[in-house]
Structure formats: C-alpha cells, structure tokens
C-alpha cells in the first residue's frame, strides 16, 4: 500500500541544492543559503552562537519576545549586550539605532527582528541597515514572520545573517528553515573559537561539509517531507507571483485594522501606527474590561477554522491576533474574523457595527 508521506524516493543533493537556490532567489541574495533541518529557532540560535563570543559587543533590538531570546543567547555566549527595547506596540526607528551607536561606538553586532507575528509590528530594516553598514557591524535579522508577507532583501539591506522559516506567510511546514550567510559572517564564524562545530547548531559544519564541497554530498539525511513542503510552498509563491502574494498580505492587514476600528465595541489596533503594523498578522487590543482569551474562544466557537489567537504569555489577556499566514490572507478570512469577533463582543453586551466593519474592511482592501 502506498502512502503519500511514506516510501518516498530519497531526496538527493541536487534537489536539495535546487531548493536552496530557490530560497536565494526569493531573498534576492548572492550569499550562501543553508537550509537548516529544523524549526527556525535552529538557525536563529546557530547564527548567534556561531558569530558571538566574549569579544562581541552587541546591540540587541527588542520589539517583541524573540528579541528578548536573542539577548539571552548573546549573553550566554559571553557577549556584551546593549538592549534597545521599544514598546511592543511600536517599531524601532533608524534614529534610535543611530543613537545607540553614538553611545556605544564599539558595537560590532546588531540583532533585529523584522516582523513579529507575536506582537504584529514590523521594523524599517532598510533604513536600519544603512546605519549598521555605516558602522561596519555584523547585521543579524529574523525574517521568519516577514518572508512571503513583505519584501525581505538581505543583500540590498546589508544583512549578513538572514533567517527565514516556512510556517508563517509561506504557508509551509514548521520543521525547516533557512539562513543566508555573507562572506563576512562566515569569516567571523571561522575566527570564533566558541562557534559550534560537529553540532546540530553548527552552520560551519554545513559550510565545510556541504558548501565548500560544491554541494555534491549531503552531510546527513535531509528532513525529506519538510524539504518537499518547502519546495512546494516556494513553487506556489513563484506561480502566484511574490508581489501579488505580498500585496494580498498587506491588504489583509489593512482591511483587518480598518474593520476592527469600524466594528467598535472598544476594539482597537494593538500597534498604534499603521506604518508599524506587520502584513503577516494584525494584533488587536481587547476592549477595557474584557479578556482577550475569552473573546477569542467565543469567536472560535462560531468558526474554529479562523486564524485567531490570543496573545502569548503576558499578552494573553489584552491581545487578540488575527494571522494572515499565506492562504489565510484573503477577504473571506478577514470578513469571517471580523464577524466572529463582532459576535463575541455582542455576546458581552458591547454595541458593535458589523456592517460598518464589513464595509471598512472592503474599502481598505481595495485601497
Ligand atoms: C514565528 C516566529 C518565529 C518562529 O518560531 P515559532 O514560534 O516556533 O513559530 C521566529 N521569529 C519570529 C519573529 C516569529 O514570528
């Protein structure tokens, strides 16, 4: 008996390299791309442990929970870390980064999250990249949540280490991820005695055993199903046209934001300025006196398939997330999410305007 997931022919080196090339095309990068065989935390941690050590002075920008994690890893590596934290309902500005360099000119490493699905904000990476480049620091970017939803251009932005995953806007599997690595970043790793080697976290292993050998022999058995899933979602994106797909994400975010405001009942966008709001997910602030988790549970009771979630951890009471991941970035899903949230608010006795919300969402989508 054949099964669609089982008894597949082996995924060879040529196919693996071709998928890497496809990721490189998507990112418009001439840097090496390594497809890491695990969830995005693998290259995120591997890239930090590979490049940071006791001599590193890092500027770690915190605009959400991932930035906090990166700071912990950097400290664990022995780096001196200057945290630049901004409230989770804003984005960082290039000016704040410029000020940090003025205060600590010895900064040689900058870590930044592009878009945060957990908080719904997105940071101006191109402008920040100019500042980082002017100071010659190594630039590390978490683009897991932004890739596929908005442009991610590591080479144009001077990003040395750009990490992506398949499970957000690409609508792919969570068990595979990738990182683009500049020559400078490879050199930093090669010179770092603390860089992981012969380790699952080692990017250098991939360089020495895979890239430097001309990508002819895989160092170990690939995560075949995940690789096929990644290939399929890249193919789907190429066929639909990345610009169109990104426009669809931007429309979904704008429509959700406008619709939530028009719905009323005290619902508000969590990210204060529209320009700071990420196309990958729209976060909303629950009305005062109402619990976000409870509203989400009630909304999901009307349609369990909606991409709604309460905020994680400390944000669970106040934040509602409407995800626009890949196939969920449609008019129908936005409409459904607004209708379900409207029902939940009405059940709580809030005065709402579902028809106004529907119209505002439609207008914002078309704009
Ligand atoms: C989603 C996401 C990741 C990947 O982590 P998971 O929570 O396991 O999906 C990494 N970084 C950012 C900014 C993300 O939004």
Automatic annotation (TrEMBL):
Give the GO molecular function terms: alanine-glyoxylate transaminase activity; L-serine-pyruvate transaminase activity
The answer to keyword Transferase applying to this record is yes
Q: Name one GO biological process term.
A: glycine biosynthetic process, by transamination of glyoxylate
Q: Where does substrate bind?
A: 321
Q: Which residues form the Aminotransferase class V domain?
A: 53-271
User: Where are the N6-(pyridoxal phosphate)lysine modifications?
Assistant: 168
User: What cofactor does this chain's UniProt record say it requires?
Assistant: pyridoxal 5'-phosphate
Ordered alphabetically, the record's keywords are: Aminotransferase, Pyridoxal phosphate, Transferase
Q: Which Pfam families match?
A: Aminotran_5 (PF00266)
Q: Does the keyword Thylakoid apply?
A: no
* Database matches in PANTHER family: ALANINE--GLYOXYLATE AMINOTRANSFERASE 1, AMINOTRANSFERASE CLASS V
Family indicated by similarity? Belongs to the class-V pyridoxal-phosphate-dependent aminotransferase family.
What name does the UniProt record give this protein?
Aminotransferase
Lineage of the native species? Bacteria, Bacillati, Actinomycetota, Actinomycetes, Kitasatosporales
């Amino acid at each position: 008996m054949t099964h669609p997931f089982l008894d597949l022919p082996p995924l060879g080196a040529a196919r693996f390299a071709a998928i890497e090339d496809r990721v490189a095309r998507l990112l418009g990068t001439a840097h090496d791309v390594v497809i890491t065989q695990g969830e995005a935390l693998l290259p995120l941690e591997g890239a930090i442990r590979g490049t940071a050590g006791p001599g590193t002075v890092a500027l770690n920008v915190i605009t959400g929970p991932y930035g906090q994690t990166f700071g912990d890893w950097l400290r664990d590596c022995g780096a001196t870390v200057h945290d630049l934290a901004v409230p989770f309902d804003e984005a960082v500005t290039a000016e704040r980064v410029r000020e940090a360099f003025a205060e600590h000119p010895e900064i040689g490493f900058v870590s930044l999250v592009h878009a945060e699905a957990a908080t719904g904000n997105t940071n101006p990476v191109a402008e920040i990249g100019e500042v980082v480049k002017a100071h010659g620091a190594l630039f590390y970017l978490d683009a897991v949540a932004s890739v596929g939803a908005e442009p991610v251009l590591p080479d144009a932005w001077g990003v040395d280490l750009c990490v992506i995953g398949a499970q957000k806007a690409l609508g792919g599997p969570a068990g595979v991820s990738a990182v683009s690595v500049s020559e400078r970043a490879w050199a930093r790793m090669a010179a770092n005695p603390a860089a992981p080697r012969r380790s699952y976290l080692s990017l250098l292993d991939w360089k020495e055993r895979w890239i430097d050998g001309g990508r002819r022999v895989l160092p170990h058995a690939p995560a075949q199903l995940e690789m096929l899933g990644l290939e399929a979602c890249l193919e789907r994106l190429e066929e639909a046209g990345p610009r169109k797909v990104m426009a669809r994400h931007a429309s979904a975010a704008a429509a959700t934001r406008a619709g939530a405001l028009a719905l009323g009942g005290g619902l508000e966008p969590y990210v204060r300025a529209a320009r700071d709001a990420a196309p990958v997910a729209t976060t909303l602030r629950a009305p005062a006196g109402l619990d976000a988790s409870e509203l989400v549970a009630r909304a999901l009771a009307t349609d369990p398939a909606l991409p709604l979630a309460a905020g994680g951890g400390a944000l669970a009471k106040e934040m509602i997330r409407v995800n626009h991941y890949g196939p969920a970035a449609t008019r129908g899903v936005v409409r459904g999410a607004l209708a379900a949230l409207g029902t939940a608010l009405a059940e709580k006795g809030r005065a709402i305007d579902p028809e106004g919300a529907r119209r505002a969402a439609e207008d914002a989508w078309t704009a």
